[in-house]
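Dear Dr. L.,

I hope this message finds you well. Following up on our conversation about the binding site, I have prepared a predicted three-dimensional model of the protein together with magnesium ion. For your records, I am including the exact sequence and ligand specification that went into the calculation, followed by the structure tokens. Please feel free to forward this to your student if that is useful.
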Amino acid sequence: MLDKAITPSFIVKYLDQYVIGQDDAKKTVAVTVYSHFRKIAKSQQDSTSISKSNVLLIGPTGTGKTLMCETLSGALGVPFVTAEATALAQSRYVNEEIEAVLQRLVDKAGGDIVRSQNGIVFIDEIDKLKATDDQPRSVSGESVQHALLKIMEGAAVKLGNGQYIDTTNILFICGGAFVGLEEIMSQSNTYRYISILKDESQKMLARLNSRVKPTDLFTFGLIPEFTGRLPVITRFQELSKPMLVRILTEPKNSIYELFRQIFRNEGVELTVEPRVFEQIAEIAVEYKTGARSLRGLFEELITPILYVVPDNRDIERVVISSVFTDPSYFRKGASA
Ligand SMILES: Nc1ncnc2c1ncn2[C@@H]1O[C@H](COP(=O)(O)OP(=O)(O)OP(=O)(O)O)[C@@H](O)[C@H]1O
Ligand SMILES: [Mg+2]
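The resulting structure of the complex is given below.
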């Protein structure tokens, strides 16, 4: 079970080390996960059943949904697995695929069924399960939704080795980009005026209008029963340029740090000036893939340098001061 020291604020602080921004999503996920485990602890005392709050993460591509869930598993120390909804939809035997996911959860718990029954399953790319008419029924996203909602609700699932795993207390987190949802919401949201204090009312309107309603998700293509199993919905924001700069440099295992380490291993000190991060972030904003393009852009800048360095053992320092100019090489014994 969850360690006593793990509170919502502990979880958020942990996430902050790796995930930049997305404060609302962090808080919502932290509180949901925390109360989930509190509820389980309580239900074990007085043997009541819990009502589960599975979570849906919605947000543009490359904004940290998958990253947050992976980081979360590190913070909690409970068994955690990720499944791709797209892979489930491509499989001919959905139930077998789902069994395999649960089997992985048991493996993560070191074979301990009881521990795995309090784990977390993250189902990514859930938006790709939207119902369409042009697929044969057996592999349609809709049938995957039906299969998933059974285990999300809580069921005893027989695993390959004949053991059963009860999914009642397993927390399910679903994530997806939901391209096009924004437009659906703008058509369905009709909150324009609320008669309370003006300042408050603006904030309230912004809040209401950014809320994803279950009906928006139906319109998008999720079936009502499925949406009903995801009572907590939180949104990830588009990453701004300053945030992209922070992502390059701040996280514990940031891209900059990663490459500095590679150069250190070559006996070279790499310095990238702040302007370069700004330039890279600017290009990344253009690419519209969130933080996803940052690594490639940075790598492109570094590759020619990493090509030169191993042949020149006297290079001790490299400074990059712009994306558009050659780097400066500083050699041992030479004064610049
Ligand atoms: N908020 C963030 N903080 C730090 N790094 C981030 C953040 N968002 C994205 N990244 C970086 O971008 C990469 C892609 O992010 P991630 O896989 O979490 O995107 P996603 O939101 O799941 O997108 P998709 O909807 O396409 O699956 C991550 O590996 C991470 O390095
Ligand atoms: Mg993802």
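In brief: The mean pLDDT is 89.

With kind regards,
A. P.
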